[in-house]
């Protein structure tokens, strides 16, 4: 599909807007046109080739979603590179460990991602951006506008780029999901697997030429632009997003459940089909979306390891009367089975090839306990993993808990506490050592908490961490229940 997109941008209405964005007042602006996006991708491909990046090289990318990020993906695909997606909100220690594992030959970062290394550190930290000094981890180039203190720009080149050679189904992208700073874990998708996932999205959503699709992720941009649709990047504030939806009347809208809730609170009206994922979306939320004008409201079940896996429309989800969360039937090509402990296992053409540094395994362990109905639909019954899902972000406690074990801390865990709207609050439960001064300990915890970026807890509580079993491991369920009680008193 990336090859088809690169061709379509030049041959199918190259003067038509490819990506739109909205100002704070809700006014529509053309971010880039289709032919311009194709030119930008070619220019980046030539520039990367001039820097010596050859097929099989790894390109680290710490760039916010949008046209430049998509152009870099197209350029990397053309050159046979693999991209390591670097999340600036993960915190400097975690990101440094991930970079050490991926070992990129070049890191591309926008100005905001680099700001924390110097000139705008306090501002960037308030925006949950927390990168280590990137230049200490390898060659760095700035993508887009360069600001003081940033690395030199990667300027699009006018030099010709040779046609892409077929390299087989090599690695396309690395996406980090879990693991500790001592042992990061990364999902590796091949070019064939990525193409299969994009094809599944296209077949599910069926974007049409000349229509508007609202959404900002890679899996929204590529199928929509390849089909000839225009993509509008969602406004950041709920009020502006509500005005944007009214002005554009998109045929398809993709927003996370937190974005949907905020938009509905701001009085948003929807059109066409609305898609949501990245966090649980119950039938009540989908009904509210349809009551606000949407023709259909879909919940998509997806994982970093397999996107998308299943989907269900509000009417079917609302009709599910038994226990558990119905997420729908596996999408074409996806197969599901249950492990002996009830964990849901998935496989399919779009499944990840392997975890970086590990052997390939066709079956993805989801960490979700589930049941399969007689007709094969998937019903979730809770998570087996310790992952906390907050505001559509996956937070893995094991990444951050070691940083909380300062002198004076006996034990510390991060747990999710239900927030009452399908979301979770992230709470740190810290057990002080005997004789430790709580006031001093709270002050000393401030620095490691600041370094957590987007994983910073919503609350920090002092108390005894519940233990269970012969090994006396922390009982996370009991810790979550304890925190819930403490937060309501």
Describe this structure in words.
32% of the residues lie in helices and 28% in strands. By secondary structure, it is of the alpha/beta class. Among the domains are: 2-167, Rossmann fold (3-Layer(aba) Sandwich); 388-488, 2-Layer Sandwich (GMP Synthetase, Chain A, domain 3), CATH 3.30.300. It has a 13-stranded mixed beta sheet with strand order 2-1-10-9-11-12-13-14-15-20-19-17-16, sandwiched between helices. A seven-stranded mixed beta sheet has the order 6-5-3-4-7-8-18. The chain has a three-stranded mixed beta sheet with strand order 23-24-25. α1 (2-11) crosses α8 (218-226). The longest helix has 17 residues, at 34-50. The chain starts with a helix and ends with a helix. 44% of the residues are buried. The model is unreliable at 122-132 (pLDDT under 50).
Termini Cα gap: 54 Å
* Side-by-side strand order of the widest sheet: 2-1-10-9-11-12-13-14-15-20-19-17-16
The percentage helix is: 25-40%
Assign the CATH architecture of one domain.
3-Layer(aba) Sandwich
Uncertain segments of ≥5 residues (pLDDT<50)?
122-132
Q: Count the helices. How many?
A: 15
Q: Briefly, what CATH class of one domain?
A: Alpha Beta
Main β sheet profile: 13 strands, mixed
What is the 3D form? globular
Number of strands: 27
CATH topology (fold) name of one domain:
Rossmann fold
Rg computed from alpha carbons, rounded to a whole number of angstroms: 23 Å
Overall pLDDT: 89
**Alpha-beta content class:** alpha/beta
Quote the beta fraction: 25-35%
> CATH superfamily name of one domain?
ANL, N-terminal domain
